[in-house]
Structures are given as C-alpha cells and as structure tokens.
C-alpha cells in the first residue's frame, strides 16, 4: 500500500518552548504546503497556554533557501509568503529563527519576520532575487533596512551576494552566532527572551532621515549610471528601500508587493527565471536511468596549454588530485608557469590566501611521462585540435588507462565517434568540450556518441558538476564533426554576420548592434580576441558546400597577416597591450575592394535588421540541431548560448527569445519534445522552426 506523503512541517515541544520543524528536502523550499504547515503550527503554538516562546528550525542541511520559484507563474495560494511573515511578526509570543546552512531569498525573509535570529557559525544568508529579475516580495525590502540600515540593505539586495553569519551579526541581521548545537542553543535563547515582549523589526536605522534619503538618492544615481534607467528590478529595490523610511510598515509592504508584481511580469524576469530552470534541466541526462556517476578522485590531463592548464586549475579548485602530462621538460615548466601565475594573481587580488594557493598546488603532479595515466579515474585529452595528433594520443591513453577509467577528449570540432574508436575503448570515451577560460567559464558540453556507455557518460557528467560547472549533453553521431551545439550555432551566427558585412554593413556597426542587444562583445570583437588564424585553419580543412554562399573577407585578412589582438591588427587596431581597439580603416578598404570584385552594391542595414537576421540564423541552427537530436531540448541551446557565448541572460536565450519576441519571423514551428515532457516557459508548446523557415532563411542570404 502506498504511504501517505510525510507532512513537511511538524510541531514539537521542549518544555515551555514550541519548536516548529520544517522538513521539505532537499532545500526546504517554502512551497504552499510548507507555508500552510508553518502557519498552522504557529497558531497552535501561540494559542497553547504553556507556550512562552517559539523556535522555527529546519531539518536537513539548510534553513529554507527561498520560495518555490515554480509558483511565480501560478495563481496565488494562501497564505502567501508575505502573509506568513506578517503572521510571524505579529505573534504575541517571541519567535526565534534558528538558521543553519543557507537562508536565502524567502528563507531569509521568513527569518527577518521572526523577532530574533540565531545562526550556526557556518551559516550564510542573502537575498538573490535580483538574479531572477525581481526583488524580495515578502517584506524583505521593508524589514532589512530597518534592521541594518539602507546602505547595507541595498548592498545585499542589489548584489544578491551572500554574507556569513559572523558578518551578518556585525551588521545587526543576526542576534547570536553559535558553534554549538544550533537547536539546543535556539531553545535556550528562546527561553531567555520569553520574558520580553516581542517587537517588530528594529527601526533605529530610520532615525537619521536626511542621511537615509541621501544614501537612497546616491544609490539610485549609481544604478542609473551603471545599469541604465530601464533596469527595472534594481530601480524598484531602491524605490522600496526609500518607502521603508517615508511610509508606515503596512503601506511600505503594499509598495513592495506592487513592485514585485511589476518585476515578475517583466520580460527580463521571465528570461532570468527561464535561465534558472534551463540550467537545472540541462544537467538531467537520460543515461541517469541506467547508471550513476562513478567516484572520481584523481584526474589526469594530457596537454598543458591554456586549455589544459585551465582544466587543471578548475579541478584543483574543486578538490581533485590532478596529474598533468606535457611533452618534455620545457612543456612541463611552461604548464607549471601558467598554473603558478594563476594562483599568484588570485592571491594578489585577494581571491585566495597564500595558504589556500599553496594547498591547491600540493595536489598537482606535473610530469612528461604518460605511464602515470594508469592511476587516474578520468583522463582528459587537451592537446591541439588536430585529428591525427588526437587519434594517436587517444590510442596511447586507451592502452595505458585502467579498465574502469573514463577517457575524454576536449575536441570542439572533430569527429567524436572517430576519435573514440581511435582510443580502442569507444564505450569508455566521451567528449568534454570546455569553454575558455576553462577555470572560469561555467559551461562544458558532454559529447555522447552512439557507442559510449551510460556509465562513462554519467561519470563525465558527475565530474563536470563536481567542478561547479553546468553540463549540457550533445549527442553526436558517426561523421558528425560540426562542433557540438555551441560551435555549430556560432558558425551560423558568424555566417549571417559575414553576409551582412559583404552586403554593406561594417564590423563596428554589427558589433554595436549586438552589444546594444545585450552581448558584451560583438562577433568581430570576439574574432579578434580569439585569433582569426584559428577559424581560418578550420575553414581550410572543412569540406565546403559548393552551393552555399561563402564570404572570403576573413580569409583575405589572415593572408595579410591581420590576425586580431595577437598581431595588434584585425577588424580593429590595438595599441600595444590594449584590449580595446579602433576600427581598422585598411579592413574597410579591403571590404570595399572585395565588394567591387564580386559586383555587390552596398545596401544599408539598420540595427534591427542586423539583430533579426542574426537571431534567425541562431534559431535556424538550433532547429537543425534539435531535428538531428544533437540537442535534447531547446533550453539546452539557450544554456549553451548564455554560458558559452554571452547571449544576454535576461532574454532567456535565443530559443526562448524567438518564441517570446519574434512571432512574425517564426511563422511555422514544430514540437520537438515528447508531449509529456514539461516545457520551461509556461503553457506554450516547445517550438522551433520548420523546413520552410530554413528555406526562407537560405533564400534571404542567397539574395
């Protein structure tokens, strides 16, 4: 017989103290069942004549980390979190919140509504709603400035950063920090305050009205200057903190509620929430039904260049023992210099202490001997992007690796199935495509070919997650060598840009249009930064469709020796040591001569033309990858483009963007997921473009 689900909240008694215990794993999210349970338990506790004080605590590893984000798009269910917080604050007996793990978002708002807060020494707390394009909507914008003042409150809410318990106590957010048993300390603390009468949030920080308003005005000006006048959530947060001074608590809560609803309804918040769920969905691999990640303790990396060294640093930072293999003594020394320089910079900038940097390096073994690979649980090949070199190296790795080791190649373009076969152990071999810089970028594409075992795939996925990165599965078939998800779409993006460049636009205009769209850099700035010779080499080896339009401008630039930042001259000219360039007049002259040779009459493109053409190219490429099964879901493409290529996160990624903002362009669509699989953006079906839209785009570019 199926057991009834366990109630997520229970009421216990410890003498004269009522203990409300939340147990809603894994993170004690404050969904409607939890809220109703807390409200019922609180009412019962306060009504009991033998209750002198109440403690709200949580089982598991953490205090509630926030509201249930899935409810944001649902009809309100009472009590809302705001109503629950008001109920706690108005309780006629003192309420103590006992915080362990993290108290984030709605969890911290719940704690602030209590009359006192006690925290474990290791606890952390924060209000990260800004990362979802919204603001604390359960009284946080009104209670936090009353507790810690406007400056610190604005710092916490506008950054979304967490603070430790010790700092929170210094700020006035926490009343007591303990290194002892939290539950016992909380009950004892509740008994000690039981003789006092509960008070609402401390209002002492509202005393200096002129200073308070000056702080608010300065922060509003800063937000406008740094983020623009249309940055909705940051400006609403400033407005709400201002309301905490000017208005009574009840009216301030009304202002906050209205601001929260405006934010939730915004396109920005919709995109950020989509991104939040998309990243979590990406990590769900179908192989999980067959296997679980194997334990990985030692990682080996073959190749100590910029990529290999970056992967090594990422593994060291995550606590892995690392063996890095390079050719010859000079190669080993160069790799050590790269890794050492990273730790020196990190210590100099205060990101790590000297002790932490030294400790990380004790887990690094540098060698030029391949026979050390037999000790590793997972081996990453990260040598030059050359099929013959990689095939030879993978064959050697396959012969030396222990039987249960996973072998991964960091190829970005080459045929994964053929490389896996070259290892002699195709079932154990997968792709791990790290994005540069590997020690920083959060994206790793996990390449899955037809003969890869579920065990090797899940072990690779588990390793990526242990690095604190987001794995995205890319299924590649025999003969597929177009760059997984990210680089396949990047080719389409660049091709659309190159066609407009040939037809009349300038590099600076295209880059400017994409920056105004939300990218940090435009395509030609990125090309200069990456090096034009790398893409040139790829084009020379890749078979070319004779019927497809080909733009030779970049090839002509490489043949002139204009390679981008590495030669101080590419689409832009760079002063020595500078990353910002000015338009290269010689390139504009080369483009004009090129157009004349091909008989092209330049035409004018608006920024909107540029953005629409590039978005359409990206979505078309995404549709093709979905149709071929390379990407499992549209949101996986969104994750790759956001994390790997800087697609503006506030827009949710290109596939969501296409569905949300360009219905006139995407007139015909096709569902690509099973009907029972939930979508990530509300009730609309998961849609992408049909063949006729691809044909339309091909005709547009051929004209």
TrEMBL record:
Species of the source: Litoreibacter ascidiaceicola
Pathway: Lipid metabolism; fatty acid beta-oxidation
InterPro entries assigned to the protein according to its UniProt record, in alphabetical order: 3-OHacyl-CoA_DH_NAD-bd (IPR006176), 3HC_DH_C (IPR006108), 6-PGluconate_DH-like_C_sf (IPR008927), ClpP/crotonase-like_dom_sf (IPR029045), Enoyl-CoA_hyd/isom_CS (IPR018376), Enoyl-CoA_hydra/iso (IPR001753), NAD(P)-bd_dom_sf (IPR036291)
Superkingdom of the organism of origin: Bacteria
Domain 3-hydroxyacyl-CoA dehydrogenase NAD binding: 299-474
Transmembrane parts of this sequence: none
Keywords for the protein's UniProt record, in alphabetical order: Fatty acid metabolism, Isomerase, Lipid degradation, Lipid metabolism, Lyase, Multifunctional enzyme, NAD, Oxidoreductase, Peroxisome
Keyword Transport (UniProt): no
Cell compartment(s), UniProt: Peroxisome
Name recorded for this polypeptide: Short chain enoyl-CoA hydratase /3-hydroxyacyl-CoA dehydrogenase
Main location: other
A Gene Ontology biological process term: fatty acid beta-oxidation
GO MF assignments: (3S)-3-hydroxyacyl-CoA dehydrogenase (NAD+) activity; enoyl-CoA hydratase activity; isomerase activity; NAD+ binding
Similarity comment text for this entry: Belongs to the enoyl-CoA hydratase/isomerase family.
């Amino acid at each position: 017989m199926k057991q009834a689900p366990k109630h997520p909240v229970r009421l216990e008694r410890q003498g004269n103290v009522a203990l409300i215990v939340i147990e809603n794993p894994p993170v004690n999210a404050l969904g409607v069942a939890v809220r109703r349970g807390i409200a019922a338990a609180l009412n019962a506790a306060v009504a009991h004549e033998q209750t002198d004080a109440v403690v709200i605590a949580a089982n598991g590893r953490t205090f509630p980390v926030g509201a249930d984000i899935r409810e944001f798009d649902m009809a309100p269910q009472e009590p809302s979190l705001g109503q629950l917080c008001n109920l706690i604050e108005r309780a006629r007996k003192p309420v103590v919140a006992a915080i362990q793990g993290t108290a984030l978002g709605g969890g911290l708002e719940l704690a602030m509504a209590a009359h006192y807060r006690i925290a474990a020494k290791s606890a952390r707390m924060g209000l990260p709603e800004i990362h979802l394009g919204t603001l604390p909507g359960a009284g946080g914008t009104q209670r936090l400035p009353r507790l810690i003042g406007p400056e610190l409150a604005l710092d916490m809410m506008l950054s979304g950063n967490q603070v430790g318990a010790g700092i929170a106590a210094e700020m006035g957010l926490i009343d007591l920090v303990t290194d002892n048993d939290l539950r016992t300390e909380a009950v004892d603390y509740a008994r000690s305050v039981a003789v006092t009468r509960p008070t609402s949030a401390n209002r002492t920080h509202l005393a200096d009205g002129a200073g308070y308003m000056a702080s608010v005005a300065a922060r509003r000006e800063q937000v406008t200057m740094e983020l623009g006048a249309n940055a909705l959530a940051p400006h609403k947060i400033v407005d709400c903190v201002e309301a905490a001074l000017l208005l009574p608590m009840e009216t301030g809560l009304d202002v906050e509620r209205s601001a929260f609803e405006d934010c939730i309804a915004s396109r920005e918040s919709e995109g950020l929430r989509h991104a939040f769920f998309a990243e979590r969905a990406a990590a769900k691999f179908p192989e999980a039904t067959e296997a679980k990640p194997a334990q990985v303790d030692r990682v080996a990396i073959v190749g100590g260049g910029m990529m290999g060294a970056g992967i090594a640093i990422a593994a060291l930072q995550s606590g892995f023992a690392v063996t890095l293999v390079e050719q010859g003594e000079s190669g080993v020394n160069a790799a050590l210099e790269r890794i050492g320089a990273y730790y020196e910079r990190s210590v100099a900038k205060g990101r790590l202490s000297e002790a932490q940097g030294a400790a990380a390096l004790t887990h690094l073994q540098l060698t030029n001997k391949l026979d050390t690979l037999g000790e590793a649980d997972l081996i990453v090949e990260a040598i030059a992007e050359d099929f013959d070199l990689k095939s030879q190296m993978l064959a050697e790795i396959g012969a030396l690796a222990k039987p249960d080791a996973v072998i991964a190649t960091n190829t970005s373009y080459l045929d994964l199935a053929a490389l896996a076969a070259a290892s002699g152990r195709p079932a154990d071999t997968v792709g791990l495509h790290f994005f540069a810089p590997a020690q920083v970028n959060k994206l790793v594409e996990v390449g899955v070919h037809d003969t890869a075992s579920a065990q090797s795939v899940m072990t690779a996925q588990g390793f990526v997650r242990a690095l604190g990165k987001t794995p995205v599965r890319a299924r590649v078939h025999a003969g597929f060598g177009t760059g997984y998800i990210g680089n396949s779409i990047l080719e389409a993006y660049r091709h659309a840009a190159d066609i407009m460049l040939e037809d009349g636009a300038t590099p600076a205009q295209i880059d400017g249009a994409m920056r105004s769209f939300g990218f940090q850099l435009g395509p030609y700035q990125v090309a200069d930064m990456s090096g034009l010779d790398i893409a040139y080499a790829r084009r020379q080896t890749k078979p070319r469709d004779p019927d497809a339009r080909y733009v030779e401008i970049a090839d002509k630039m490489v043949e002139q020796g204009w390679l981008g930042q590495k030669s101080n001259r590419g689409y832009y000219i760079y002063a020595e040591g500078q990353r910002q360039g000015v338009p290269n007049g010689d390139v504009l002259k080369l483009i004009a001569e090129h157009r004349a040779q091909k008989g092209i009459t330049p035409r004018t493109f608006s920024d909107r033309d540029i953005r629409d053409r590039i978005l359409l190219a990206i979505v078309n490429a995404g549709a093709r990858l979905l149709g071929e099964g390379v990407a499992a879901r549209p949101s996986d493409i969104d994750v790759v483009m956001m994390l790997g290529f800087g697609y503006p996160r506030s827009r949710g990624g290109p596939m969501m963007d296409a569905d949300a903002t360009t219905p006139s362009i995407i007139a015909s669509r096709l569902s690509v997921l099973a009907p029972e699989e939930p979508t990530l953006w509300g009730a609309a079906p998961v849609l992408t473009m049909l063949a006729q839209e691809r044909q339309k785009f091909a005709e547009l570019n051929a004209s």
